[in-house]
Amino acid sequence: MNRIIQALLKLATIVAAIAFIAGCATIYTSPDFSIYESGHESIAILPFDVTINPGHKSKDVTQDELRELATKQGETFQRALYSQFLQGQQRGKYTVTFQDIDETNVLLNRELERHATRRVLSALTKSEICEILKVDAVVSGDMALSKPMGTGAAIASALLLGIGGATNEGHINMSIHEGDGGKLLWNYEHKVKGNLLSSPESVAKDLMKGVARTFPYKR
Fold first, then answer.
1. Would you call 108 helix, strand, or coil by DSSP?
2. d(CA 54, CA 9)
3. Where are the alpha helices (DSSP H) in 91-151?
4. For residue 129, how many other CB atoms are within 10 A of its CB?
5. Fewest beta carbons less than 10 Å away: which of 60, 162, 185, 209?
6. What DSSP letter does each residue of 53-106 carry, written as one string?
7. CA 89 to CA 77: how far, in whole Å?
8. d(Cα 57, Cα 41) in Å, to the nearest integer?
9. Residue 75 class from Cβ within 10 Å (0-12 exposed, 13-18 middle, 19+ buried)?
10. Which element (helix H / strand E) includes 201?
11. Helix, strand, or coil (residue 110)
């Protein structure tokens, strides 16, 4: 009887944990996603659009300095998220492959420089981006942070910029758009704070815990 009770308690704990994690996220999947999935083979992960809104910072810090730091954090998170997806791809978890992010970034920068819009992905539609990258869909997203994620470079930058104070908090919005018309196929919103924001890698791993259950291209 004790074994049964212990098993039930363990199961209840697992269910509660799953419910808690799911409750922290808002998820949308297009009702006709299956129509698009059958024709999709490869997708690309774009650098995330990061904004840093510290509660207080040095008066000597310029918005350009904050934007530069945010851009670097967005690219670092892109690489960490790609690593997570690649591990799943290698285990056969997904119906699509993920374009190497070095190829993604080279192609994007080449196109943006050609049109004098370097680092401004918002100047391109999702359809245009898919055409440039020759993929069927793109994963994109944005992150709003109260201070930089804790990479060594970010910590050093934060000290130099005078950013500190309260526990880091972040809001992550991740989406998938298809290439032909740029339609939104899937969206995942998640809030994290504290130790989970200690590095881009930890954020990516935490995000993938929820994404793994709802990512539309999973087998």
1. helix
2. 42
3. 101-114, 126-133
4. 23
5. 60
6. --SS--TT--HHHHHHHHHHHHHHHHHHHHHHHHHHHHTT-BSSEE--HHHHHH
7. 18
8. 45
9. middle
10. helix 200-214
11. helix
> Which one-letter amino acid corresponds to residue 57?
K
Q: What is the pLDDT along the chain (219 residues), one digit of tens a residue?
A: 444 444 333 433 333 333 334 446 789 999 999 999 999 999 999 998 888 776 545 555 667 777 787 788 888 889 888 998 999 999 999 999 999 999 999 999 888 888 765 557 778 899 999 999 999 999 999 888 776 665 444 444 444 444 444 456 778 899 999 999 999 999 999 887 655 455 667 777 777 777 878 899 998
**Could you tell me the CA-to-CA distances from 209 to 26, 74, 80, 203, 206 in Å, in that order?**
14, 20, 14, 10, 5
- Report yes or no: 171 and 117 within 8 Å, Cβ to Cβ: no
In a 13 Å sphere around the CA of 171, the CA atoms on its Cβ side amount to 5
Neighbours of 155 (CB within 10 A): 15
Q: Name the one residue in this structure whose structure tokens are 């995000």.
A: 207
CB 53 within 8 A of CB 66: no
Buried-state track 1-28, b at ≥16 Cβ within 10 A, e below 16: eeeeeeeeeeeeeeeeeeeeeeeebebe
Q: Which residue has the tokens 């999709």?
A: 40
Cβ of 33: how many Cβ atoms within 10 Å? 17
